[in-house]
Amino acid sequence: MDYKKSNAPLTTTVHDLVEMAEQTGNIYETVAVISKRANQIAAEMKSDLEKKLQEFASLNDNLEEISENREQIEISRYYEKLPKPTLIATQEYMEKKLAFRNIAKEKDEL
To answer: Nearest-CA neighbor of 4 among 86, 71, 81, 94?
Structure first.
């Protein structure tokens, strides 16, 4: 999933909890699925941001003089304007783009 091209809203939206729980049958399980996906997206976004910022990092930084250049600031602003990982994960869940399974239920059925 390319989070940069996501059609997730930039602000919090209200969803029908009954509708959201249809895929799992349990709202708590739904929240767990969305939160785990949001953590994955956040980790991916963080690693991408760090990689891009490292390209512009100067090698002769010392503790007394830490300066940020314009490119680093622009990249940081771009990532701040992206939808939050929770909103992206919720949008993926609502569009049924997430694949998930409950291992505990699978063991009980065997």
So the answer is: 81
pLDDT in tens, 16-67: 888 888 888 889 999 999 999 999 999 999 999 888 888 876 655 555 455 5
- Flag whether 44 is in a domain: yes
Which has the closest alpha carbon to 12: 88, 79, 77?
88
Fill in the amino acid letter for 23: Q
| Tally of helices (H runs) and strands (E runs) in the chain | 5, 0
- Domain residue limits at 45: 15-56+68-109
Q: What is the pTM of this model?
A: 0.77
Residue 73 located in a structural domain: yes
Q: Which of 36, 43, 51, 50 is nearest to 92 (CA)?
A: 36
Would you say 17 and 90 are in contact if contact means Cβ atoms under 8 Å apart? no
Task: Find all residues with CB under 8 Å of 65, minimum gap 6, and list them.
Answer: none
